[in-house]
C-alpha cells in the first residue's frame, strides 16, 4: 500500500481543536477543548486512522487479519479500510457461538464491507498471541500469509503513528486526556507531548492492568517510557461495553449542550471523567484541558 493510496482518502489532518464553553469547567477557571479526531475520515474514524494507516502501508496490499469482539470498532474500521483500498480483510471474532446467530449491526457492517469473519471460542481467543495458536488460527481462516494486526490495532507501528496526535497539541494544552482500551493511542500521544504537558488516560476496562501494557507499548515503539502520564481507573462504568443509564443520560445532555455526537464506549466515559475531575478541583485555574474525541457513533446502516 503506497502513501499515495492512503492520501487519496483525503484525511483531515491535523484534526480540528474546538473550544467548548461549559460552566462545569469555566466556573473553576478551566478551559475545555475537544480534539476532534472523529472528523479525520468518515469511515476510518479518529484514532483508527492514526493506528491503521501505518499498518496498511506496511502490509503492502497483503491480506490484513485482525481481532476483535462482537462490537469492535477496530474490526469495523479495518473492514472499511479494506473496502476503500481494495485490500482483503479477515476478522477473527471472539465467541464461536456468534457464528450461529444473526449478525449484529456491527458485524453485519464488517461483512457488507467485504471482511471475512472467522469465529473462535474464547479460550483460543485468549491465547491468540501464542505463536502455535496464532498459526492455527491463520490456517483455519485461510490466511497463512496475512499481515497480522493485534486486537485494537495497538502495535509499535500504531503507537508511533499516534505520536503525531500529541505533537499536534504541543503548546496548546496543559492536560491531554484520552479514553483507553488497549492503550496504543494513549501510549503514542503521551510520547508526542511537549515539556510541561501531561497525558491523562481514562481506561474503559476495569482491572487496573493497563499502566503496564502502555509502558510496554512505549518500550516496544520508542525504547522506553515516554512523556508525563497517568491513568484514572474510576470511570469504566463496570467494564468494556457497559453503558448504564447514568452514562447515557450524561452523554445525551452533553450532546444537547454542545452539539457534539458522543460515542458511548469510549468518548462518553472520557468526558464524564473530565467533568468529575473538574468538579473535584483536579485542574488548577487557568488549566487548558483537551479531551480527545477518538471516535464517533458508527451508523447502523
Q: What descriptors fit this protein?
A:
Rossmann fold, 2 domains, 10 strands
Based on DSSP secondary structure assignment, what is the total number of beta strands? 10
Order of helices and strands: HEHEHEHEHEHHEHEHEHEHHE
In spatial order, strands of the major sheet run 1-2-10-7-8-9
What is the third-level CATH name, the topology of the largest domain?
Rossmann fold
Which CATH class of the largest domain is shown?
Alpha Beta
Secondary-structure-derived class: alpha/beta
Give the SSE map:
Layout: H1 3-7, E1 17-20, H2 23-26, E2 31-35, H3 47-59, E3 64-68, H4 73-85, E4 89-94, H5 105-112, E5 116-120, H6 122-126, H7 131-140, E6 147-148, H8 156-168, E7 175-180, H9 184-192, E8 198-203, H10 210-222, E9 229-231, H11 245-258, H12 267-279, E10 288-292
Parallel strand pairs: 2-10, 3-4, 3-6, 4-5, 7-8, 7-10, 8-9
Antiparallel strand pairs: 1-2
Amino acid at each position: 500500500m503506497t502513501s499515495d493510496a492512503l492520501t487519496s482518502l483525503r484525511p483531515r489532518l491535523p484534526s480540528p481543536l474546538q473550544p467548548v464553553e461549559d460552566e462545569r469547567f469555566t466556573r473553576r477557571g478551566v478551559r475545555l477543548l475537544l480534539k476532534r479526531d472523529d472528523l479525520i475520515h468518515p469511515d476510518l474514524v479518529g484514532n483508527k486512522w492514526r493506528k491503521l494507516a501505518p499498518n496498511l502501508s506496511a502490509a503492502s496490499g497483503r491480506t490484513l487479519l485482525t481481532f476483535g469482539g462482537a462490537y469492535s470498532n477496530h474490526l469495523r474500521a479495518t473492514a472499511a479500510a479494506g473496502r476503500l483500498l481494495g485490500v482483503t480483510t479477515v476478522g477473527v471474532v471472539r465467541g464461536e457461538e456468534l457464528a450461529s446467530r444473526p449478525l449484529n449491526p456491527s458485524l453485519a457492517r464488517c461483512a457488507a464491507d467485504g471482511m471475512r469473519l472467522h469465529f473462535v471460542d474464547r479460550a483460543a481467543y485468549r491465547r491468540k498471541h501464542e505463536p502455535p495458536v496464532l498459526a492455527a488460527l491463520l490456517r483455519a481462516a485461510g490466511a497463512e500469509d496475512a499481515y497480522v494486526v493485534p486486537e485494537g490495532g495497538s502495535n509499535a507501528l500504531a503507537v508511533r503513528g499516534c505520536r503525531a496526535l500529541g505533537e499536534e497539541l504541543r503548546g496548546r494544552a496543559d492536560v491531554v486526556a484520552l479514553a483507553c482500551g488497549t492503550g496504543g493511542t494513549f501510549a503514542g500521544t503521551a510520547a508526542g507531548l511537549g515539556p510541561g504537558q501531561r497525558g491523562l488516560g481514562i481506561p474503559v476496562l476495569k482491572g487496573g492492568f493497563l499502566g503496564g501494557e502502555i509502558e510496554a507499548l512505549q518500550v516496544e515503539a520508542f525504547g522506553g517510557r515516554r512523556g508525563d502520564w497517568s491513568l484514572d481507573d474510576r470511570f469504566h462504568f463496570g467494564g468494556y461495553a457497559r453503558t448504564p443509564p447514568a452514562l447515557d443520560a450524561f452523554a445525551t445532555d452533553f450532546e444537547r449542550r454542545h452539539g457534539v455526537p458522543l460515542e458511548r464506549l469510549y468518548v462518553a466515559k472520557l468526558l464524564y471523567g473530565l467533568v468529575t475531575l473538574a468538579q473535584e478541583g483536579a485542574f488548577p485555574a487557568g488549566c487548558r484541558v483537551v479531551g480527545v474525541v477518538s471516535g464517533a457513533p458508527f451508523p447502523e446502516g
